[in-house]
Design brief:
The complex is a heterodimer of chains A (135) and B (146). By secondary structure, chain A is mainly β. Chain A is built from no helices and nine strands. In chain A, the strands form two sheets. In chain A, strands 1-7-5-4 form a four-stranded mixed beta sheet, with no helix packed on it. Chain B has a domain of 79 residues: Immunoglobulin-like. The N terminus of chain B is likely disordered. The chains are: A mainly beta (135), B mainly beta (146).
Chain lengths: 135, 146
């Protein structure tokens, strides 16, 4: 069944100002939507391509990686404004055993990754019919 | 208003274990970082060379037809809309990506030639090239020996 857990907060995860404009690895922002028969995950991976995205599901862990090459020569470029850095993406999600791993599907368009994680048969909701007991 | 695309370099926090999010976790006040991201969207990088200014913005999910780029004088305006997905029946466990309209004005340090402005949108990255007006380009002055 599903892992029950709380978000692991990082000690200084809200301090983005000091990190603006750095290169390095970035955690992409995501939407996670639970539907009746699947989990739908969307991740912003601007600058990545389908070829540079690496998705792995192993032992209940869904790992998203994307390598994003530098678009500018960081040493030579004369920046006037630098509000974000460019670098690889990496984020992992603990999914647990409730996913049918053989049917995971992914698509990438306009810099957005869409990941379909079908629920395993045994955890899908079932409609239970109620029998009338006339005795 | 939409918010920016990125949080922080993961490498700051070290080992893989600490980077693992829980797919089914509750909304974390800290980890979602929504309030910590800049309120201006999209974030831009601006640089220059001798001929042009360059403005780059990350706008994943925005389609060409939903994007409007204008130059008036030395002001560049990027306007657009990131659509909500139609098929959204279900329960959001995380909703970090904002949708809706956005507009950002970038004041350039000098005039540009509006006729020569080019914009390219690729894999969620918008790159705008703005040729500098002739009057502001650096000129090499020849020195003659007498």
């Amino acid at each position: 069944m599903m892992a029950i857990a709380t978000e692991r907060c990082q000690p200084n995860c809200c301090d983005t100002d000091s990190m603006m404009g750095q290169t390095g690895t970035f955690a992409p922002i995501v939407d996670i939507l639970e539907k009746e028969n699947e989990w739908l995950l969307r991740a912003d991976l601007p600058g990545a391509t389908a070829e540079t995205i690496d998705l792995r599901y192993e032992r209940g862990l869904m790992v998203i990686r994307a390598s994003v090459p530098a678009r500018q020569d960081e040493k030579e470029t004369r920046y006037l404004v630098r509000e974000y850095g460019v670098g690889d993406f990496h984020r992992a999600f603990e999914v647990g055993e409730g996913i049918d791993a053989s049917r995971i599907e992914a698509a990438f368009k306009d810099g957005v990754l869409t990941l379909h994680l079908p629920k395993a048969e045994e955890i899908r909701p079932r409609k239970i019919s109620v029998q009338c007991d006339r005795n | 208003m939409m918010l920016a695309n990125r949080w922080f370099p993961v490498s700051t926090f070290g080992d893989l274990q600490r980077e693992v999010d829980r797919l089914f976790g509750t909304f974390g006040k800290c980890g979602n970082g929504r309030e910590s991201r800049p309120s201006v969207y999209p974030a831009v990088n601006v640089w220059e060379d001798g001929e042009s200014f360059f403005v780059e913005a990350e706008i994943p999910g925005v389609k060409m037809e939903d994007l409007d780029v204008q130059v008036v004088g030395d002001e560049l305006t990027i306007r657009g809309q990131r659509p909500a997905f139609a098929d959204e029946n279900g329960t959001f466990h995380r909703q970090e990506r904002s949708v809706g309209e956005f507009a950002r004005v970038v004041a350039l340090p000098a005039g540009v030639n509006p006729e020569g402005v080019q914009a390219v949108l690729r894999d969620g990255v918008l790159t705008i090239t703005l040729p500098k007006a002739e009057a502001v380009k650096a000129r090499k002055i020849n020195i003659t020996n007498q």
